[in-house]
Design brief:
The complex is a heterodimer of chains A (about 260) and B (about 250).
Chain A lengths: L8 E10 L2 E11 L4 E5 L6 H8 L7 E6 L2 E2 L4 H7 E4 L11 H11 L5 H11 L15 H13 L5 E5 L7 H16 L3 E6 L2 H7 L2 E6 L2 E6 L1 H6 L15 H9 L11
Parallel strand pairs in A: 3-8, 3-9, 6-7, 7-8
Antiparallel strand pairs in A: 1-2, 1-4, 4-5, 9-10
Helix pairs in contact in A: 3-4, 3-5, 5-6
Chain B lengths: L1 H21 L2 H21 L10 H31 L1 H6 L7 H27 L8 H28 L3 H6 L1 H6 L15 H8 L3 H12 L7 H27 L2
The chains are: A alpha/beta (about 260), B mainly alpha (about 250).
């Protein structure tokens, strides 16, 4: 972890309760600039609560959440300038077309050339063919890609992705994964919440495990693996997983982001 | 900041207005009930109702307009509820925009939708023989009362949209509002009602509002009714706005 530059995200001693329920019981973590950080936990572990606090939608009971050097509780406007949030369910306008959704976001972020930005993103996320269709007709994967594309407008340095692949089919999931990798490749800091172990494994530079309101482990995949006793070598016949079979048969696998219907 | 607020509100209003232009059935649905009541009361019950006025259409139209507004704002709650549920409300709230513009866009859209519905109902009333000699000033006063009443009910709808748990709940709050004109001077003279009902009818907001609009249409002196009507509208508006802000703060830090 670099010491010269402040981390993109810094969470310290964060606590939040909803009535009697103590959702966050004092959590700490830092996220380095330009990295993908996965917050891993089962349903109800408090992942979304962390994201909502960082995204200035919820005030913590105690502790601080700092985004790009700004305190989420006391400098929310500056935080909002620095972030994009894609919530747990693709938060897109179903009645507008894909292009209209993007143009609306670009205008709200006071971008000069909203139309061109929309066209670029449609092309980049393989949605050009569907740009004039209402989002209500999109598949789950297309909606998620549009959702992520909407988050990129204005080039926010930090992006929150709350369970980006929940409810997606395997192909769409791979497409979303490749979009996320591409983001981090361009220097965007990504905080990802997920309940899927393989998703954290595939995408994240660092993984924190949130359990019963506390971070019980935080490290790179290798570091987390080292927490367990050394692996014993066994020879097993490698069977294809059902996912391998499914993708081989339907011809997916590559995130070509070409979806016709 | 104020420039941002206006710009953001305009953009978001454009967005929700597009929801209406793309499903004009919402306008049609909100006008069906008031028009049905108008047909029913004028052509079925009207013959037996003695209001002392020459034309029953002229008598009942103000009440029908109130029902139109109550029916129209149930869609405001619906639209806001759907924004809450889909997460787009939170997405807007996490963006560097004037946060209140998200609610104001819904309020302005509600106003536009109500005015269109009112125009449709007025048109049907004209076909059914409604006539008014009211001048520009009178019409302006009627429009002013209707706009004020729409805004008051719209902020009520905002409370429902923000705090409802289900889509049915978001719309259900408008049912009592739609029924309120029936226990008022909208369809019959309050003098014919038994004591307690009459007391309620004469002291609830719809009666002075309906009386004021009726007198304005008939070019009669409006008396104190208009001031009571305005006081009710403004009082409701302030109260509903305050409660809507409380509901909003409960949702978003």
């Amino acid at each position: 972890m670099t010491t010269q530059t402040a981390p993109a995200l810094r969470v310290q001693a964060l606590e939040k309760s909803f009535k009697e329920l103590r959702v966050l019981r004092g959590i700490d973590f830092d996220v380095e600039r330009g990295s993908i950080f996965a917050l891993l936990g089962s349903n109800g572990a408090g992942k979304t609560t962390v994201v909502r606090i960082l995204a200035t939608l919820l005030k913590p009971d105690a502790g601080t959440a700092t985004v790009a050097g700004f305190d989420a509780a006391t400098q929310p406007a500056s935080v909002r300038e620095s972030i994009s949030l894609t919530g747990q369910f693709a938060a897109v306008d179903e009645i507008l077309t894909g292009r209209e959704n993007l143009v609306l976001m670009a205008r709200l972020r006071h971008e000069q050339d909203a139309g061109r930005i929309a066209d670029d993103l449609l092309a980049r996320f393989g949605l050009t063919d569907a740009e004039q269709r209402r989002v209500a007709t999109y598949s789950g994967g297309m909606r998620r890609r549009l959702d992520i594309a909407m988050s990129l407008i204005g080039n926010p340095p930090v992006i929150f992705l709350d369970e980006p692949t929940t409810g997606l089919d395997p192909q769409s999931r791979l497409e979303v994964w490749s979009s996320i990798k591409e983001l981090a490749g361009q220097g965007t800091t990504v905080l990802l919440t997920t309940q899927y172990l393989d998703e954290a494994e595939q995408l994240a530079d660092r993984i924190a495990i949130l359990h019963e309101g506390r971070i019980i482990a935080n490290g790179t995949l290798a570091e987390l693996k080292a927490l367990l006793p050394p692996a014993t070598v066994e020879y097993v016949e490698k069977q294809p997983s059902l996912e391998d079979v499914f993708l081989a048969i339907v011809g997916g696998g590559q995130a070509t982001s070409k979806e016709q219907q | 900041m104020i420039r941002h607020f206006l710009g953001d509100t305009a953009l978001l209003t454009g967005r929700s207005l597009r929801h209406i232009t793309r499903s004009p059935d919402t306008i049609i649905t909100t006008t069906i009930m008031p028009i049905a009541f108008m047909l029913l009361f004028v052509y079925v019950f009207g013959g037996s109702i003695d209001t002392g006025s020459d034309s029953y259409v002229n008598y009942l139209l103000p009440g029908i307009l109130i029902i139109t507004i109550a029916s129209s704002i149930s869609y405001t709650a619906f639209r806001l509820f759907m924004d809450m549920k889909s997460g787009i409300f939170e997405r807007f709230q996490s963006m560097p925009i004037a946060r209140s513009s998200v609610l104001w866009a819904h309020v302005l859209t509600s106003l536009v939708a109500s005015l269109v519905s009112l125009a449709v109902v007025m048109l049907v009333a004209l076909l059914m023989g409604f006539r008014s000699g009211a001048g520009a000033l009178g019409c302006l006063a009627v429009a002013g009362i209707l706009v004020l009443f729409t805004l008051a009910l719209t902020w009520l709808a905002v409370i429902a949209g923000l705090s409802a748990k289900t889509v049915d709940g978001a719309g259900a709050f408008s049912y009592p509002l739609i029924l309120l004109p029936f226990i008022s001077s909208a369809f019959v003279l309050t003098a014919t009602m038994p004591g307690p009902v009459r007391a309620f009818a004469e002291n609830q907001p719809v009666t002075p509002i309906v009386n004021a609009i009726r007198d304005l249409f008939a070019q009669q002196s409006v008396g104190t009714d208009i001031w009571i009507a305005l006081a009710w509208c403004l009082g409701l508006l302030v109260l509903a706005y305050g409660l809507a802000m409380v509901a909003y703060r409960r949702k978003i830090a």
